[in-house]
């Protein structure tokens, strides 16, 4: 029997956990042509939610474009990724129609089309020309969506995933200005900007001095409620023939803190451990937690050994008390930290290494089970 809990990849179908209200809100905004800025910490299910949304609105006749900016490191990369996303919509049509349409909407791009043995077409572009005229090409790309939508009498959705990566580019300000100059004129086009770094996303969209200031509705994605997650866990254990009581479910959610990724991961392993005996009890929950920590022992130990003394102090403090005013005298005295500058340097380094992240106005450890490992192995 297949394990009903999924983690580490996009979660679709029956494995998609609730998010009914978020899905409804997103679809409503998209159908009204509104822009949305959606952000949350990593592994909260942003991509799964937006893919579910894309599938739903696509079935309602909306043109959809999904652009993943995670691999992007340069302005040129942005143009290339965007061009591939735009052209992929037309690639499903016959070759003659594809070439004709692409020529109309992207006149500066010359596609290279390679026909495969099975009849599929592989599309690439003259990168030298694309990069030489990148700003002009980007202008065409940003106008291609409304042209396609108008020609088909439809509204359109454009999703930029990991949009905060733009802020890391040398030409970030120029790129943001070009994007703003186009999307502010578009009617019946909804742009959804997804990001996993809240402080970077808010910097891009809430700073009055940035080009994209207030260009959409802010939509912070929160954890799934314990009530919804409890129902999801119970249903998936029961439908696969495994008994589990409310007490066990409450303990699971207490351990995972209703974090979408870690809850799916924990339940996946618990299900594996219990599917033969057809029953999951408190002892099984405890042993699953210990198993998870043990499996990451070498990795967590390596992370710990690489930390400076100030970094270790900060990590331990966050493992025991996340709601902290890090620069208050109370905190500095409690943890014997003499230098604010050293603490600031530690925070910057730990953020860069993605060991900590900032969410809801305070810092937290990025890996929930690293926190559990510190609680059990290191102590305060």
From TrEMBL:
It holds the Pfam family ATPase_2. One of its GO terms (molecular function) is ATP binding. It comes from the Bacteria. Residues 16-262 form the ATPase domain. Gene3D superfamilies: P-loop containing nucleotide triphosphate hydrolases. This is ATPase domain-containing protein.
